[in-house]
Amino acid sequence: MDDRLSTKKALEVLGWTHRNTLYTRVKAGEIAVIKDGQRSYYLRSELERYLNAVQNPEITVEEAHRRAQEAADYADRGLEWPPKS
Fold first, then answer.
1. Cα(17)–Cα(20) distance, rounded to whole angstroms?
2. β pairing state of 34-36 and 39-43
3. Which of 10-24, 36-50, 53-67, 71-85 shows the lowest per-residue confidence on average (mean pLDDT)?
4. Radius of gyration, CA atoms only, the chain
5. How far apart are CA 43 and CA 31, in angstroms?
6. Which pTM does this prediction carry?
7. pLDDT by residue (tens digit) across 4-40?
8. Alpha-carbon distance 49 to 10, whole Å?
9. Over the stretch 65-76, which tens digit does the pLDDT of each residue have?
10. Taking a C-beta distance cutoff of 8 angstroms, is the pair 10, 22 a contact?
11. One-character DSSP codes across 56-83
């Protein structure tokens, strides 16, 4: 069975210090919460899924095509990709 974490433990897993940050993500539908009366619980797998999505965001096909086209344009001009700011 999946670990059911308190708000305090969930914040530790996420590496956050403010409950408002967690509540904002819950309200936005980015993290699921389990309500048991007055208490809130979070599944460890749900928090890990959120962290993975934040660290490795999915990109659309259009965005991938745009990036590939931009890289090809730089290569055609003999410039280094990605450009250094």
1. 9
2. antiparallel
3. 71-85
4. 19
5. 9
6. 0.66
7. 999 999 999 999 999 999 999 999 999 999 999 999 9
8. 13
9. 998 898 888 888
10. yes
11. S----HHHHHHHHHHHHHHHHTT--SSP
How many residues are listed for the chain in this entry? Answer: 85
Please classify residue 33 by burial: count the beta carbons closer than 10 Å to its beta carbon, then call 0-12 exposed, 13-18 middle and 19+ buried. middle
Q: What angle do CA 46, 57, 10 make, to 5 degrees?
A: 25
Query: What separation in angstroms does the CA of 28 have from each of 25, 44, 70, 75, 80?
Result: 5, 19, 33, 40, 39
Return phi, psi of residue 64, to 5°: -60, -45
